[in-house]
Design a protein that fits this description.
It is built from eight helices and twelve strands. It is an alpha/beta fold. This is Two-component system OmpR family response regulator.
C-alpha cells in the first residue's frame, strides 16, 4: 500500500478553498483546510503535509509571514496562490519560502500539473534514512558536502536549512559541474523533466529560478563577485564555481 500523501489548503475564500481541496483530493491527497494564517501554521506543524497551497491575502497574517513561520518546522512544497499580479509580490512570496506560485484566477488543471511535478521530486532525508550508506555518496566541493540520498548539505560542520527547491538547484549544479545550465534548464529540472525536453518555460518561471538561486546564495554565504559554489554566467545561466586549490 502506498503512503498517504497529505495536502493542506490555507485559503480564506470558501469557494477557492473548496476548489483546491477537490483538485488535491483528485490527485490522491488526504486534504486538510485552514481559513486563517494562524490556523494554517498550526496545521502545518501538526500534519507535516507534503504540499501546501497558501493564499497570500489572508485576513489575520499575510501569506509572506505564514510561509516564513511554516518554514521553521516544515519542508513541505508551498505553492503560493495570489490575486496580486505584481512581480514584486511574487518574488517576496518565493523569498519567504515558497516553491512555486499561481495567480488567481487559475486553471485547476494547471494547479494539479504543478503539484504532480513537485511530487515526482524526492522529498526529505527522513524518507531515505534506511538506504545503504554506500548508495549515498557525498559530493564535496570547496568544503560543502552534499548528499543526494539523505538530501543534506553540510558546510563547516553545520547542516544548511534549505528548501526542497533550493536543494534541488544546488544538486543540479553539483551534478553538471562546469557545464552552464540556463534558467530554462533549471526550471525544467524542478519539473523533473530532462534538460533538453524543449517544453515551454515562461519568463516568470525563469525569474523564479533567479529568486531561488539568490536565496540559496544567501544561505551559503556565497559571493557573486568571488563565488565558491554558484557562478552566474551573465545572460546565460549558472554553473558550479571552480574548485579551490585546497579543495
Amino acid at each position: 500500500m502506498s503512503e498517504v500523501r497529505v495536502g493542506l489548503v490555507i485559503e480564506d475564500d470558501q469557494d477557492i478553498r473548496e476548489l483546491v481541496r477537490v483538485v488535491l483530493s483528485q490527485a490522491g491527497f488526504d486534504v486538510h483546510t485552514a481559513s486563517t494564517g494562524s490556523a494554517g501554521v498550526t496545521s502545518a506543524r501538526e500534519l507535516n503535509p507534503d504540499v501546501i497551497t497558501l493564499d497570500l491575502g489572508l485576513p489575520d497574517i499575510d501569506g509572506f509571514e505564514v510561509a516564513r513561520q511554516i518554514r521553521k518546522s516544515s519542508d513541505a512544497y508551498i505553492i503560493m496562490l495570489t490575486a496580486r499580479a505584481e512581480e514584486l509580490d511574487t518574488l517576496m512570496g518565493l523569498e519567504a519560502g515558497g516553491d512555486d506560485y499561481l495567480t488567481k484566477p487559475f486553471r485547476p488543471r494547471e494547479l494539479r500539473a504543478r503539484v504532480e511535478a513537485m511530487m515526482r521530486r524526492p522529498r526529505a532525508s527522513s524518507d531515505v534514512k534506511s538506504a545503504p550508506e554506500e548508495a549515498d555518496p557525498e559530493m564535496i566541493h570547496n568544503g560543502l558536502a552534499v548528499s543526494a540520498g539523505s538530501r543534506t548539505a553540510i558546510l563547516n560542520g553545520t547542516e544548511l536549512k534549505l528548501t526542497r527547491t533550493e536543494f534541488d538547484l544546488l544538486l543540479a549544479l553539483l551534478e553538471t559541474g562546469r557545464i552552464v545550465r540556463t534558467k530554462a534548464d533549471l526550471a525544467r529540472r524542478l519539473r523533473n523533466e530532462p534538460y533538453d525536453v524543449g517544453s515551454y518555460v515562461s519568463d516568470a518561471d525563469e525569474r523564479a529560478v533567479e529568486v531561488h538561486m539568490g536565496n540559496l546564495r544567501k544561505k551559503l554565504g556565497d559571493s557573486i563577485q568571488g563565488p565558491r559554489w554558484l557562478e552566474t554566467v551573465r545572460g546565460v545561466g549558472y554553473r558550479l564555481a571552480p574548485a579551490a586549490n585546497n579543495n
